[in-house]
Amino acid sequence: DYRKAPLCTGDPDALFAELAALPGDKIAKVKVGLYEAVRDGMVVNMLLEALPDLRLRLDANRSWTPARAAGFAKYVNPAWRQRIAFIEEPCKTRDESRAFARESGIAIAWDESVREADFVVQAEAGVAAIVIKPTLTGSLSRCRLLIEQAQRAGLTAVISSSLESSLGLTQLARMAHWLTPDTVPGLDTLGLMQAQLLRRWPDCALPLLEVEALECVWRS
After folding, report:
1. Residue of 21 and 73 predicted with greater confidence
2. Is the pLDDT assigned to residue 114 strictly greater than 70?
C-alpha cells in the first residue's frame, strides 16, 4: 500500500494541479515554521480556499512561540480550520501547544513528544492524533503498542517517515498497511534523496542503486 500524504514544498501555485488530481481522500502535508507565521497562515488559507475537498496536516516542529502561533491562526479562515486535520507540535512546550489548540480551534498532534520518556497516550481536548516515526521510535512491538493505545483513546495514529531510503520507506508502507490500514501514512520524503536503494518506490524517477554500487563502510 503505497499511499502517502504528499509533502507540499515550493511555490503553492504549482501544487494546485497535483493536489487537485489526488484520488479519494485528499490529504496533504505542509511544513510550517520555516518562514514567518503570517506567511504560513496565508499559504494554508489559500490552499484550503482553492481546493474545497482538501484536508491538511501541518508540521511546525515546535518552532512557534505562542504569539507566532496566534499570528498563524489569525490568517486562517475560522470556517476552514476544521479542514486542518492537525498541526504537529506547533509550540515549544506541550502546554503552549494545548493552549493554541484551545484558543484557535485547530487540532494538534503529538510527534516529538511521543519519543519522550514521560509521554502518555491519552484523550485530550484539542488533540487529534499521534505521529509515529518507527525508525526513531524503536521496535515494532513499541510502535504497535502506541497505535493500540491511540486507538483506544480515540486518536488517529499516523505512521510517518523521517529520512529513510526507498528500502526503508517500503518497509514503513508495509507496516502502515498492517497496523493503520484506514489512515494515509506520511511517507513523502524520498524527494530529499539523490537515488533509490534496492527497492523502487512507485512512480519515482530517481535512479536505483543496487548492492554492488554501494561502498562498504563497516563490516562486522
Report:
1. 73
2. yes
Q: Per-residue confidence at 17, pLDDT binned at 50, 70, 90? A: confident
In whole angstroms, give the CA distance from residue 128 to residue 88. 10
Which one of 26, 31, 74, 92 is the catalytic residue?
31
Q: Is 205 helix (H, G, I), strand (E, B) or coil?
A: coil
CA 128/CA 140 separation, integer angstroms? 23
As a whole number, mean pLDDT of residues 9-34 equals: 76
Q: pTM for the full model?
A: 0.90
Cα separation, 16 vs 187, whole angstroms: 20
C-alpha span between 101 and 21 (Å, rounded): 31
Helix (H, G, I), strand (E, B) or coil at 16: helix
133 catalytic, yes or no? yes
As given in the structure block, the three cell numbers for residue 108 are 494538534
Find all residues with CB under 8 Å of 132, minimum gap 6, and list them. Answer: 114, 143, 146, 147, 157, 158, 159, 160
Centre a 10 Å sphere on the Cβ of residue 160 and count the other Cβ atoms it contains. 26
